[in-house]
Amino acid sequence: DKVLVGLSGGKDSLSLLHTLRQYTYYARKTGINFTMGAVTVDPMSSAYDPRPLIPYLEQLGIEYLYEEQDIMSQAMKIDASSICAFCSRMKRGRLYAAARRKGYNVLALGQHLDDISESFLMSIFHNGRLRTMKASYTNSEGDIRIIRPFVYVRENALRHFAESQKLPIIAENCPACFEAPKERQRVKQLLAQQELLFPRLYWNLKTALYPVMKVNKTGLESLIFGKSSGGGDVINQLTTSNGVTTKMGLDENGAKMEENGGASCQLSDDEDF
To answer: Which H or E run contains 232?
Structure first.
């Protein structure tokens, strides 16, 4: 395998980078060999500058792919109902394109148990579907496997690791993502309140979410858990200026959710919040 780490520069992705890098040494001793690299998609926002990662990855001796794309301007141009969803899909398209260009067959992402739980509740609240981000699955084209090694790890553990190791965290301050109130933040606060009453909340969620996380192929959720009752998904083809094509699944009620003050929370089969 050739594993490409999606690196934003946040605590989660940097922790994943160092964890996998350390694991390569252990794995070799057990006869498991794989190579790894990292990729960052720079949306060219004035509030987010991941360029300090370039010399850092060079110092670590890890192959680094730095992709630039003016995603914010593209979102404004087409008047996207959810800039966050649009940005997520465009970034995913660039990640796939970079992996294929350099021969990587595995894409590793840094979402953790808190992320998985929040996405699960958002999907239930807004779409009435038993869905969340998957732990390990193959994309619809069948050429890239997406893995999330931290699905059983709590966010506070990653924060502690990043701070104790003094990792060079890059602050991401996208104005589209941090306008309050946002749905993910509301769900995070809801779970935090419940965790005070039920200290084992996240470990119970982990057990409950196991059948949903273990889905290993794009599109199987619709067969196993059924399609949404909202009339289906509308798939838009989006082609970037450099010829990279990606897909964005938007629920037909997404715009209404935006108007009501919530974020568009439809999870497409390959969605990544």
So the answer is: none
